[in-house]
Amino acid sequence: MTQLPQSTDRKLGLVIDLDTCVGCHACVISCKGWNTENYGAALSDTDAYGPDVSGTFLNRVHSYEVKPETGPAQLIHFPKSCLHCEDAPCVTVCPTGASYKRTADGIVLVNEDACIGCGLCAWACPYGARELDATAGVMKKCTLCIDRIYNENLPEEDQIPACVRTCPAGARHFGDFADPNSNVSKLTAERGGMDLMPEQGTRPTNKYLPPRPKDCSGEINTLAPLLEPVATDGKGFVGWLDKMLSALPGGNA
Amino acid sequence: MSLDEPKIDLSPKVSDEIRKTTCYMCACRCGINVHMKDGKVAYIEGNRDHPVNRGVLCAKGSAGIMQVNAPSRLRAPMKRVGPRGSGEFEEISWDEALQIATDWLAPLRETAPEKLAFFTGRDQSQSFTSLWAQSYGTPNYAAHGGFCSVNMAAGGIYTMGGAFWEFGQPDWDHTKMFVLFGVAEDHDSNPIKIGIGQIKARGAKVVGVNPIRTGYNAVADDWYGITPGTDGLLILSLIHCLMKAGKVDLDYLAQFTNAACLVNEDPDSPENGLLLKDKDGKPQVIDRRTGKRAPWDGAGVEPDLSASYRYKGVTYRPVFHLMADKYLDEAYAPEAVAERTGISAGRIRQLAAEIAKVAFEEPVVLDREWTDFRGKTHKTMVGRPVSFHAMRGISAHSNGFQTARALHTLQILIGAVETPGGMRFKPPYPKPATAHPKPHCKVTPGKPLDGPHLGYPHGPADLCLTADGAPARIDKAFSWENPLSAHGLMHMVIANAHAGDPYKIDTLFLYMANMAWNSSMNTTGTMNMLTDKDESGEYVIPRIIYSDAYSSEMVAYADLILPDTTYLERHDCISLLDRPICEADAAADAIRWPVIEPDRDVRGFQSVLCELGAKLGLPAFINDDGSQKYADYADYITNHIRRPGIGPLSGWRMGDNGLQDGRGAPNEAQLDTYIKNGGFWLAHVPEEAAYYKPFNTAYQDWAVKLGFYDAPQPYIFQLYSEPMRRFQLAAMGHGDRQPPEHLRERILKAMEPLPIWYAPFEEGLVDTEAYPFHALTQRPMAMYHSWGSQNAWLRQLHGMNPLYIPTEIWKKRGFKPGDWAKVTSAHGEITVPAMEMQALNSKTAWTWNAIGKRQGAWALEGETSESSKGFLLNHLISELLPPRGDGMRWANSDPVTGQAAWFDLRVDINRADAPKASQPHHPPIKSPVPQAPKNLAWKTKS
Prior knowledge:
Largest sheet of chain A: 3 strands, mixed
Helix content of chain A: 10-25%
CATH topology of the domain at 78-151 and 434-568 in chain B: Rossmann fold
Radius of gyration of chain B: 27 Å
Strand content of chain A: 15-25%
Structural class of chain B: alpha/beta
Number of domains of chain A: 2
CATH class of the domain at 78-151 and 434-568 in chain B: Alpha Beta
CATH architecture of the largest domain in chain A: 2-Layer Sandwich
Structural class of chain A: alpha+beta
Distance between the termini of chain A: 88 Å
Oligomer: heterodimer
Helix content of chain B: 10-25%
Order of helices and strands of chain A: EHEEEEHEEHEEHHEHEH
């Protein structure tokens, strides 16, 4: 059993905007590229060019269809990675102390030197956000790009997770939820940011912004007066046109 | 930090060096930072300074490292040693490869250069490859636009001097309502995602009109699940509603469009339907100041939208009257089109009303003075902040050209083109059809062609016909079958060459187009044509040369392979002469440069053409003494002169007093300067020139200064298309150049000079009860045509492609989870995995494009999901329409431009038991590259 910190100085995490995510997978691949190259073991791909290809990803995008009671069906793109929970069950279940939550910023990490690849943490995580790397035999998970966000070799504007930096639609935001004035705290407050599966009691740090209501205009024709006819055929239209033109600057009216 | 937390390095070294170049994982052409470690590519991210992507990068771009290391990369030139299609090759030297090509092509040039058909696929160097083809002397050259989106491009050029993507973009900064028609996920890729994110963040509305609700349509605030092929009808109904309510921008229409130009109404005149012109050929309007006729561009002229005119016994009426007659017709009323479009009348009205509200009750007014071409100074810039975008979705139909024209007409009617919040052109556009070249086809053995191949005909006189009136080009572009085929018809080349219609060819020379697989209609038939032999045992298409970087399905069908490099190993220029990457506020061009050297015996295709061109003695590629003019493509990029002072790249040219933009002499250090500047060059459009570009003197002057054209050339938008009317007149019997009898009726109908809608051709030729449904493809955002599957990371995102079937069909035909579907069309049958989907037009099934692969290609090992469960819809689509019993070969293409009508497909769908693999299943081809590694654990050691 591994202890969680009583509290953390900062609560770093992501806001993911489900209203804007177009499901392009840019975050998935940017994450793979940065993280195979950096923190810990490579993110391997087995049978990479064959029938049984399977690779390790720290972030994946799922798509779900939703059929509201009225109106057409909708498709929600749902990116998912570690939510850096405050009550992270993956940490408390770890038999070796390899999984831990950082006191400084709340990031949940795996110390790969201590990881025995038992898989208990992946089993404990209700979100399926951890993947055991088949080649390295250690547990891999989102590090919130801990080797980017403090990295003095990167320009300050790039000291953000790779997924946030690359997201073309601007659907991912990084910041400190402990600071009520941070971009992520404000977005969460303004847009009703939600916990994923709050009933699990994990108190996730990452928040999801729900999609705005869709297909509301329907046929409720509050705008009907805008289409009030000025004419019903070409001849009538020309009559209207003459009237309008004479009212324009330079007209004869 | 707690004491028991491990110490980790929070500032690891990121890379040794960043090399900035241009992405080529799709056609979007974003700027990328390539992080290098120990001379190897370690990580790729977006370039924050780049005008296209501003730092972001899509999945494809980030997966570039897996592309430049893909096991599918071709390794050396090869000549075929087994039968065509077997994949049996022998590696040869470049000397031998170039000698073979020269031995084939040199005699052909001296005798019959048209027997070389050179088509360059998804080429980004068309201004270069076309120069090569022109210098060789064959009329048979084009890239892939004919099977992609020429309807949108040509519809835009003829209507307003540009269309979307490379030509124009929504005014993301000001638009309040963005309406996206049809599938457009990759044209262009990141800028649309950036734009949607940007406008959603400030609460602007996004509307999607698409049979399929994925991608951008999934985030649309309102979704209109339209029936395929009816977009034009919906748009004309919106026009009907807006005109009927008077919700059109009369001031804009009068000043900046040909709505006030006068049309000859005399039914007996050979000029019936043409515009009244003065002796200088200028279309005439009635000047509201005087009530008299005046040229459209006369100083101070105020064109009258409503005045008719009688002259020499002929009545002339303004275009706008003709539009009123046409579009107020009840045939376009929402009630009349609801059933066909699948959108209720109430919802059509709602959309029209929302457009009217945003356009006319929420205008954007910029306090910015500008002067128009008539000399009138305007104190403000008034915008109608509704913007539109569309690409292949509405284009790839046999009514796509008219539909694209209809969409542009809608934008223009509300005054939303080149005004704040609407659609904005990207330099060097706007550029009307009259400012483009006309097509050329005059062949002289041993000499160059008489001019550029592709262009914009203004009437029958500009068609590419032989003396006996037959098509001069192998693809029949610019013939009576499709007069305005501005991008050619690559999808007809193999079928026509095989049929010897209009003639046989000797050598087919292709570059990066997977014609033996996903880039052809009728894929199986195409493979048969490529391998078919005549009575003498010779191949019907005698010689095939192919250049590709990767082991695509097409490789097996060529006789000689010229292996290209990957995009990080080569020079390229993304030129203003070609398909530019500009933004509305800036002209820009860019380069690629070898950030890594190839580790194989491969060469950039353009450099190979420099050498081959010299060996063939092509005038553009040799010096006066006959020696090779350009050592390689980099040398060409730096030193080629297209017009005085104009070369492939506009940045850092040599002027009298140092370096300058736009015009100037070659600068030997130009490429180095581009590299130092991050791989691109950019010149901002002056603020007073930012809108109203076709009419704005400040923009016109700036465009001349930068060399887009040599004198100001303001113009007005062509709501009414005179070039189209000229073809109608020919079909009615006027003029010397006459269409064949069997095409008269079709030309009359298709070349209507005001946008119309007609049902897609396939619908009229098949039994719609037997084939009641539509089937479409769209490209995943994470894949680019056939390229994604060779990429170990991307193929894990889209490794197979079920047929997504709407719930209505799913239930009606008794589908259960795990079922497969037998899909039939008038042309063929496929059996494929099926899945239910609700967010779909109820008559439309769809799948991802080009995920299905042939076993043995792309260095994939064994029976992968791509080869056993993936499939192509192409097997259901013929390049020809179903026979009509007249013995003619009617192309499955738009009758105006020849664009491939991929999305006209009608099908039936029934459940099927799962076969061993998706059907049809083709036998494996022998891979020309070594076996791929089994596992990857990618880390670049520094």
